[in-house]
Amino acid sequence: MAKKNQTLGEFIIENQDSFKYTSGELSRLINSIRLAAKVVNHEVNKAGLVDITGAAGDTNIQGEDQQKLDVYANEKFIQTLTKRNIVCGIASEEEDDFVAINSQDENNQNKYVVLIDPLDGSSNIDVNVSVGTIFSIFRRVTPAGTPVKIEDFLQKGSEQVAAGYVVYGTSTMLVYTTGDGVNGFTLNPAIGTFYLSHPNMTFPEDGSIYSVNEGNYMDFPQGIKKYIKYCQEEEGERPYTSRYIGSLVSDFHRNMIKGGIYMYPKGSRNPNGKLRLLYECNPMAFLAEQANGKASDGYIRTMDVEPTELHQRVPFVCGSKNMVDKVEEFMSEFGE
Ligand code: AHM
Ligand code: MG
């Protein structure tokens, strides 16, 4: 039973029995994410003060400039998750390949893999706009005590055992699910403790906010163009308004609280959409469904998409259920 003002630590302990694999391992795993989030939060908050922002000089596998804080967040999450004997492998937006942990050790009984975008929306840091961390957790499919393999990571979203995000915003929040609803915790920075501030978060069934980069409009599929026009056209009392931060976690978070839809469709610049299935779309889709919302690629449920590679991109439509249903209607009627 979620109690407001409970600390995240208390909540994790109290709720670990409701998780279907009852050992405390997943709780310890969430705890290590909590710890890394606090460390990254500390750095993100200093971003305007110290010379830590700006491109680090490397480019990641998608050919994008890495910001220094991306690299920092990546290191912190990997270090923290590696230290405890729970995780056998980590895949990250910032790493070309997955990282295996103690994989030559036959006594290594670690059962979980974590897929993570350590600092999503990092191009927003220089202008003081919120960024986030997104994570997705699976049980490995290969036997414990053997080296972790690519198939442990290429699992359908429906197999996730937990997922969540941290939003480093006007306040820092950790929002997560273990398949039993969605709860949000706000960091009290003075004492470094997360408190349950948003128990049982749910998307309103309908919403009035649509979030999409309309700069790409000309390249969108017909179904999406029609949906955007549907939101804009004056016909009776059309309630829609447009809000786009360009930071998935923040756009999702606002839409979950207020009711809305986030879309990153296909376009010629991004033939399969921009967002990555495994560490951006799947975790958000799991959260959305657990919060009575919906997520799809415009046709099929995001969590049913069969992954084929670690950094795979997919079109993504996510938010209030009735709004996502409407987009799917338009996609099946007007298509590409
Ligand atoms: P990133 O992982 O390189 O930060 O890209 C993901 C981000 C999302 O947070 C955001 O919704 C989207 O890219 C914005 O893209 P665009 O600037 O093309 O609208
Ligand atoms: Mg990202």
From TrEMBL:
Substrate binds at D120, G121, S122, S123, N213, Y244, K274. Its cofactor is Mg(2+). Its EC number is 3.1.3.11. Mg(2+) 1 binds at E93, D117, L119. Gene3D superfamilies: 3.40.190.80, Fructose-1,6-Bisphosphatase, subunit A, domain 1 (3.30.540.10). Residues 7-199 form the Fructose-1-6-bisphosphatase class I N-terminal domain. Mg(2+) 2 binds at D117, D120, E280. Residues 204-331 form the Fructose-1-6-bisphosphatase class 1 C-terminal domain. Keywords: Carbohydrate metabolism, Cytoplasm, Hydrolase, Magnesium, Metal-binding. Pathway: Carbohydrate biosynthesis; Calvin cycle. Its main location: cytoplasm. One of its GO terms (molecular function) is fructose 1,6-bisphosphate 1-phosphatase activity. It is found in: Cytoplasm. Pfam families: FBPase, FBPase_C. Binds 2 magnesium ions per subunit. SUPFAM superfamilies: Carbohydrate phosphatase. It comes from the Bacteria. CDD domains: FBPase. It catalyses: beta-D-fructose 1,6-bisphosphate + H2O = beta-D-fructose 6-phosphate + phosphate. Homotetramer. HAMAP family: FBPase_class1. Belongs to the FBPase class 1 family. This is Fructose-1,6-bisphosphatase class 1. The gene is fbp.
